Amino acid sequence: MTELVLSLLAGLGVFYLYSAHVFGWTGLRPGPARAGAPSGHRHRMDDWLTQAGLEGLDLAQFLAVVFGLFMLGGALAFVLFGGFLPAMVFGLFLATLPVTAYRLRRQRRRQRAHDAWPRMIEEIRVLTGAAGRSVPQALFDVGRRASGEMRPSFDAAHREWLLTTDFERTLDVLKTRLADPTADITCETLLIAHQLGGTDLEQRLASLAEDRITDSQGRKDAIARQAGARFARWFTVVVPIGMALVGMSIGNGRAAYGTFYGQVLVVAALSVMILCWGFASHIMQLPDEQRVFPELGVEPA
User: Fold this and answer.
1) 3 vs 77, higher pLDDT
2) What is the model's pTM?
3) What are the residues whose beta carbons fall under 8 Å from the beta carbon of 123, sequence distance 6 or more?
4) Cβ(301)–Cβ(160) below 8 Å
5) How many angstroms separate the Cα of 274 from the Cα of each of 6, 28, 212, 238?
6) What is the pLDDT of residue 101?
7) Helix axes 260-283 and 59-81, enclosed angle (nearest 10)
8) How far does Cα 194 stand from its chain's mean position?
9) Has residue 151 got a pLDDT over 80?
10) Could you give the maximum distance between any two Cα atoms of the chain, in Å?
11) Average pLDDT of the chain?
């Protein structure tokens, strides 16, 4: 039965890799994705990939890495515990590492964006106020001094402005490329000021910058308070694995792992370990700020 399950999983992985590489199919359907407007789940997935800096992610390569880690984890667990069931569980756990790595990368990118936006908003306020720059010119001047990972988005928006001089479309391109709640709010504020004019833009931007500073500082304080819990979370992985290795080295401990009940207990222990790790990660995760003005899916001209 175990060999049949492994064969089916391997065949399914080969099918997804082949169809994605040869036919360009994406998703979990056994065929091409149906044309039409992107669903809400697709929008959220696109935002997730953009925020992690993975807009051009090759699905075939990603699946190949996941499958390779699954095989590696299964092989290590089979060598340690001598059974297919622990190998399956540990292989599946190790296969989630790419997603975890991308999630951490997304968190770091979003944190850097949180830290950068108050300064950028303040610079836009000064340029549109005391320096007398127009709203588009101030935005692009600030964008040229943005961080390296944000600058390509501003460059794409600047090209859109040079080609179309349509500021609303330009801001849609910028929001699409950044996929950031603060960018959405800032762009909408600048769009209204550009279209309707008015003398209160400076006050609005000052209030927005102050709000972003307060939010960023609050998140930093929350992360600092969680430092001890995040360190203790590693014990849910290190301690059980260490105890298993010690048990294998004592007497006939290794042979005990090879029995039916030993295999069942190993699978149960691995499952509890994975659940504890996932639950601890979930309860310590800070809530994501939701996008109020999502992009319209505008592509650069």
Assistant:
1) 77
2) 0.60
3) 138, 141, 142, 145
4) yes
5) 21, 25, 36, 12
6) 78
7) 130
8) 33
9) yes
10) 82
11) 75
What is the 3-state secondary structure of 28-67? Answer: CCCCCCCCCCCCHHHHHHHHHHHHCCCCCCCHHHHHHHHH
CA dist 241 and 257 (Å) reads 13
**Nearest C-alpha neighbor of 263 from the set 90, 123, 12, 93:** 90
| For the ranges 35-39, 82-86, 155-159, the one whose mean pLDDT is highest | 155-159
Q: What is the pLDDT of residue 35?
A: 42
Give the span between the Cα atoms of 113 and 48, in whole angstroms: 14
Render pLDDT for 168-224 as a digit per residue (tens, 0 to 9).
899 888 888 887 888 888 888 888 888 877 667 888 888 888 888 888 888 888 888
Contacts 24+ apart (CB under 8 A), 279-282: 280/229, 280/233, 280/236, 281/233
Contacts 24+ apart (CB under 8 A), 148-153: 149/53, 149/109, 149/112, 150/113, 150/116, 150/178, 152/177, 153/177, 153/178
Q: Say how far apart CA 190 and CA 16 lie, in whole Å.
A: 44
- In 3D space, the residue among 289, 41, 301, 77 whose CA is nearest the CA of residue 182 turns out to be 289
Both structure tokens of 71:
């095989």
Q: Are 116 and 147 spatial neighbours (Cβ–Cβ below 8 Å)?
A: yes
